[in-house]
Write a structure and sequence with these properties.
The complex is a heterodimer of chains A (about 400) and B (about 290).
Chain A: H1 2-24, H2 30-39, E1 42-48, H3 55-71, E2 75-76, E3 79-87, H4 95-105, E4 110-112, H5 117-130, E5 133-136, E6 153-155, H6 160-165, H7 167-173, E7 178-185, H8 187-202, E8 206-214, H9 221-230, E9 234-238, H10 241-253, E10 262-265, E11 284-287, H11 296-309, H12 315-333, H13 341-349, E12 361-362, E13 368-378, E14 381-392
Chain B: H1 3-34, H2 41-59, H3 62-83, H4 93-115, E1 131-133, E2 139-141, H5 142-164, H6 166-176, H7 178-183, H8 188-214, H9 220-235, H10 240-260, H11 265-279
Antiparallel strand pairs in B: 1-2
The chains are: A alpha/beta (about 400), B mainly alpha (about 290).
């Protein structure tokens, strides 16, 4: 990875020098530029967190993406790939500036990023103006494929709404008539709450209380006490990372586990099961990926990933891998000629991505239409129990495209 | 909500407040007595938690981990004071902010290199790993009560040390006039090294003892840092008594805020701080 980047930087340094001479001799700029491009590499900008809380996610996405490229012989649409890397630090305040580095300075053909929804919102602004192709391999903010949707904006992960919507059906099937939702008070948490509420009420269920913890606080005791006094049929939760680990442990320590069943968006149990002992056991969640899918594609992907990186892949690696696959679909349709943008976008829109999660297509707003799995924590895995919702599409409210 | 649940919420609030005191006490010492704005306090907390995790998985026992971990954090504190912090006593606060912010980045990167970026859990010691049932659906983890007890002991110990011992007298004198204390023949440099090391050790200890409850994860220090500063500011800079009062106040405000005013729960602590500062600009127990 670093070798490729260094080459990129050296080459650019060289270009700068020669560019000065080129300008001085006043050669017409357009024709040579096009000629150069045909032989040139595709410029892929990776705008992901490589420091901070989401470092592991940024790395998994990068690994997944590069694996998809490697599987195609290191070339997409017949052209080699050159990476330009920006660490977005999951800092929304720096998002426009960082996106501009890739768009203006490096003039990349496509941007892959990012994890944090706030950063994605900042990127959206820049990218909608520049028209640069953008594949979002994680950030779930509903708006990205909602009011902010655009022909050049794609997502290979999920919308927040999607991750909890199917839970309504699941709870109904288990005979739960009412539920309490608990999450952090911030955009992603509120969107997941809305997604669940809509799905649950459609099934005739009642969301009796929405409980919010200030983000990113992890002191849950007051609200757990409240849950114990409400005694709902079920609790639905969204937390992630350290917060999720602490919530699962606190839920058990407060004596609620085993008395009031716990459900959640899949992020509640992803990447934290090693940290929580048996506190996660039996928790059921919905997500577009699961352990033990045992399909040919997933097994092959897991093996290749483990061999290449000496790591087990997770949902983020899958999303990065599919970002690579989606880009490949576009570039192959135009034989690597990125100037045929409309044609390329058309090919990406209609692509059927053969993902480790199971194949999916894209909605009109460019968000995956995908199966939502019901998973249950067994030991250290979120084992698949079945499909909670076949081909769930985000409603893409506010998208005019 | 009936009376019993209000009582349980009261317990929650007090218990959370004591936990805050545990984390903030180190900052009170460093910020209050030495006058160093120490943004890296959260990093020391994180280092403590990661030490607890790695030592506990090595020795299989949290108590041993803490007993080994505390001397390590003391050494870390002394080394830091000796290498960098002491060059900044005379400087403007802005330099201290820059320095300690830089330390945050250094510690995060070191943590990533040494321990990685994953979330880890530390098991609660066997002896304390049970809950007391309070109602038919709710029980209270004994480990939380244990931590509250430790906090009370620690607060009492700090109070004795600072108010009742000769060292405490020198510390107090040093905080009001460093030069005068030095000219009276007291080795103020050594005292400052000791206070800083104590502050680091307190933060580290808080991270260690709290690790089974909070889990161990990257950037965990950032979350406690802000609320620690709020505690110190509300309590009055340099006052251990004030830090205790402020911690309990914030614990209760936060708990009951989440219960009764959930829509603005994130704000309540800061509103409380603003109100206290308008009423008493130097904090509850600060000297104006």
């Amino acid at each position: 990875m670093s070798q490729n980047e260094k080459q990129g930087f050296n080459r650019r340094g060289l270009l700068k020098g020669t560019a000065a001479i080129a300008v001085a001799t006043a050669i017409g700029t357009l024709a040579p530029f096009n000629l150069a491009q045909a032989a040139d590499k595709i410029k892929v900008g990776l705008m992901l967190p490589y420091t901070g809380t989401f470092t592991a996610l940024g790395n998994a996405i990068t690994n997944g993406f590069k694996l998809a490229v490697e599987e195609r012989g290191g070339k997409l649409g017949g052209r080699e790939i050159e990476y330009f890397v920006v660490d977005d630090e999951s800092n929304p305040a720096k998002a426009p500036e960082n996106a501009n580095k890739l768009v203006q300075r490096d003039k990349v053909d496509v941007i892959i990023g990012t994890v944090h929804s706030g950063v994605a919102m900042g990127m959206a602004k820049v990218i909608r103006e520049s028209g640069t192709l953008w594949i979002n391999p994680n950030a779930g903010a509903d708006q990205v494929t909602g009011p902010l949707c655009a022909p050049n904006i794609f997502r290979t992960s999920f919308s927040n709404w999607q991750t909890t919507h199917a839970l309504g059906k699941v709870l109904k099937a288990k005979g739960h008539k009412n539920a309490v939702f608990i999450t952090w008070k911030y955009a992603a948490g509120e969107q997941m709450m809305e997604g669940f509420k809509e799905g649950f009420e459609k099934e005739g269920g009642k969301l009796i209380k929405e409980l919010y913890v200030p983000f990113p606080q992890v002191e849950f005791q007051a609200l757990l006490t409240e849950i114990a006094s409400i005694k709902p049929d079920a609790v639905v939760a969204f937390f992630a990372g350290g917060g999720a680990a602490k919530f699962l442990k606190d839920y058990q320590a407060a004596g609620l586990k085993g008395k009031i069943p716990l459900y959640g968006s899949g992020f509640l149990t992803d990447g934290v099961l090693d940290a929580v002992g048996d506190a996660g056991e039996g928790v059921e969640t919905t997500l577009h990926y699961a352990d033990g899918l045992n399909t040919k594609k997933d097994n092959a992907f897991r093996l290749a990933y483990a061999k290449t990186y000496k790591l087990q892949p997770d949902v983020y690696a899958v999303q990065g891998y599919d970002a690579g696959q989606l880009l490949a679909a576009g570039l192959e349709a135009v034989k690597g000629d990125v100037s045929k943008k409309a044609e390329m976008i058309k090919a990406m829109e209609t692509a059927k991505i053969d993902s480790p999660r199971g194949s999916f297509t894209l909605s009109k707003a460019h968000n995956p239409v995908q199966d939502m799995y019901l998973r249950k924590v067994v030991g250290k895995e979120s084992k698949v129990q079945g499909v909670a919702w076949k081909a769930l599409a985000d409603p893409a409210r506010g998208c005019k495209m | 909500m009936d009376f019993a649940f209000l009582l349980i919420q009261l317990l929650n609030g007090l218990q959370y407040g004591l936990l805050l005191f545990l984390v903030a006490s180190g900052l009170t010492l460093i910020f209050g007595i030495m006058g160093i704005i120490n943004l890296a306090h959260g990093s020391f907390y994180m280092v403590g938690a990661y030490l607890a995790w790695s030592l506990a998985s090595l020795t299989g026992n949290l108590l041993t981990a803490i007993l080994v971990g505390i001397p390590l954090t003391v050494v870390l504190g002394m080394a830091l004071e000796w290498l960098v912090i002491r060059r900044f006593y005379e400087r403007d606060h802005l330099y201290q902010v820059l320095l300690t912010y830089g330390l945050i980045l250094v510690f995060e990167e070191l943590r990533s290199m040494i321990w990685g970026d994953d979330v880890h859990g530390v098991p609660v010691p066997e002896l304390l790993s049970y809950s007391i049932p309070l109602t038919d659906t709710l029980s209270y983890p004994v480990y939380r009560l244990f931590i509250s007890g430790v906090c009370l002991l620690l607060a009492f110990g700090l109070y004795l040390l600072i108010q009742r011992t000769r060292l405490g007298m020198m510390i107090r004198a040093g905080s009001s006039n460093r030069d005068m204390v030095q000219s009276l023949g007291i080795n103020i440099k050594l005292i400052y090294t000791l206070i800083f090391a104590m502050g680091v050790a307190l933060a580290g200890f808080a991270g260690m003892i709290n690790a089974p409850l909070s889990s161990v994860f990257p950037n965990m220090g950032g979350q406690v840092l802000i609320v620690c500063f709020v505690v110190v500011v509300i309590g009055g800079i340099g006052s251990v008594k004030g830090a205790m009062a402020a911690s309990l106040l914030i614990g209760l405000a936060d708990t009951f805020g989440q219960v009764f005013l959930p829509q603005v729960a994130g704000m309540i602590v800061y509103v409380l701080m603003a109100v206290v500062l308008v009423w008493r600009p130097a904090g509850l127990f600060g000297k104006a």
